[in-house]
Amino acid sequence: SQKFTVMFSLQNMKMVSVPTKAFGNFFEGDCYIVLNVGAAQSIDVHYWIGNSSSQDEQGAAAIYVTQLDEYLGGSPVQYREVQGYESPQFRSYFKSGIIYKTGGVSSGFTHVDTNSYNILRLMHVKGKKHVTAKEVEVSWNSFNNGDIFLLDTGKLIVQWNGPQSNRTEKLKAVLLAQDIRDRERGGRAQIGVVEGSNERESPELMKIMTTVLGEKPNKLKDAIPDEKHDQMQTNILAQFQENIVHCSLCLFYWIQDCFIVDHKGSSVMVWKGKRASKVERQEAMNRALGYIKAKNYPPSTGVEVMSEGGESAMFKHLFKSWTEKGQTKGLGSTHTVGKIAKVDQVKFDVMELHAHPELAAQQRMVDDASGDVTVWRIENLELVEVDPKTLGQFYGGDCYLVLYTYLRSNQKQYILYMWQGRHATQDEIAACAYQAVTVDSKYNGAPVQVRVVMGKEPRHFLAIFKGKFIIFEGGTGRAGAANPESSTRLFQVRGTNEMNTKATEVPARASSLNSNDVFLLKTDRVCYLWYGKGCSGDERVMAKTTSDVLFRQDKQVVMEGQEPANFWVALGGKSSYASDKRPRLFECSNQTGRFRMTEVYDFAQSDLDEDDVMLLDTWEELFLWIGKHANKSETTDAWKSAQEYLRSHPAGRDPDTPIISIKQGNEPPTFTGWFDAWDPLKWKVSLIADLSNSPNRAW
Has residue 685 got a pLDDT over 60? Predict the structure, then answer.
């Protein structure tokens, strides 16, 4: 099953699809709707309110969300998001950060053309975990000593690091700058870094800054600590908690089978029972907003609206006893309602995509992937065309350029994908970018350039290889190259059709298995097709197709739980692996002055914060991952919270569930197996150390 996020803006009271390159950019004068479909086909619909948006736009956004909910059978969970107070779940959709842009349709400003280099803006970057960047006045008056600022001149983005900013903030800002370069400028802009505490080391970049901003004043403003915003929220909510003494939540029954749940004033949830009428369901969001106003809660108070059978994880966690339909114990099985299954079952009609660009944006598909494909590999920093017989086979030690050509209105259109292997050298990555410019020039700048990182391939990229996209973890595809051969190789296959399938090589050990997927295990004599209990028939068919491409040996089907002894021998012995219960990751931090646990949604290895302690709940075990910069207090509090987490869990967890403490850089496979495409070398080289040593560096 595929996960995807779709974003819409409201223009003249109509929903307009936002192109992928503009994801995470929010105009303060507008309202937006963001629809997210999770791995288990759960649907979340958020509507975002800009600080300068009109009441009419806000009302229109709420109406569209209600209509979406009705169309999808009442299955989505609805969320109201306010600028500057977005929920962690909402922020998780935009890994590189959120950018607040001035203007918007309602305020009379026009949206900036992100393909243009005629840009001059200054962005104030804040946040350690979830980054936000707000456009501010292009002046030294906007600067302070504790934060990071991006001066965007179109072809050059200068990152100025405040003397009091920390390592994590610098890294997050670099990732945001890279995201702007890659998505908005097609990878053609340069990035330079200036350390505010050592500006003399960056004379050329400082000259550019002073040319744009004028002479720098002798003293800049002091920073507003990141935690001040959170502390202000805590103080505001504290006054409301006095009215809810000795109670974790309050229920308010207003109409037949509909309830408002007040979670200590921090959020308001509306639960709609199956017997609720259509009018009652449509009024749910308005009832919640009316309740917030009546209680004098802040306008930024979060709102969730959900239907019976489609409750959010946070809602369930508020109840000491919660069972699902068909559940015998715990939260293992989930009952789905409505039209969720229809979301991913859209047939691609290329004429329909061309006639309705908004559909193309929603499906992330410019066409049906039937165009022409040419693939080059970077060899000795030059382009070498890949043998068509091995099309779709990519090696982690290489970089590739993929040129896709298709027709629109009888005119040729081009997409140039730049695929970067995890183990490719910096020279190869640089050569890939350089050769992309060469190819782009050959076609007079017509190709749309897309940077693709190994393991993060977009939907259209997968589709052009017709279900035969395969990633080899290491080595190279170069002719005559001596790749390290192993008698045993394991591939994880995900996908239900030719448009979304890929096979990824993973460590050949039992802990790499996952009950939700199909795996191919190659040995000297046989290729096993291992079918996890949670995989579908379509996934099995696609795995069989992949196995025919990879291996010529005899194929042997193995069902989970019926493995022969030789299967486990090939994997080095039997051990635990990811089961059908979805893991949950929490950040444990006291950076705001008090200890907090915050859930991280749709997590990846990059979400493990070196400054904090992270808690990973795999149901059979709890892992406490300790970042190398985490303080002793966080470690102690995290251990206590892990024990309380088990005791208070609504599923009635065993309080004796093992709690395992591990340190950064020493993760066992039973931990890394829960993360897609785990990179064991991620923390070997510090990016910030490189930047500190070369503050003038531009790339």
Answer: no
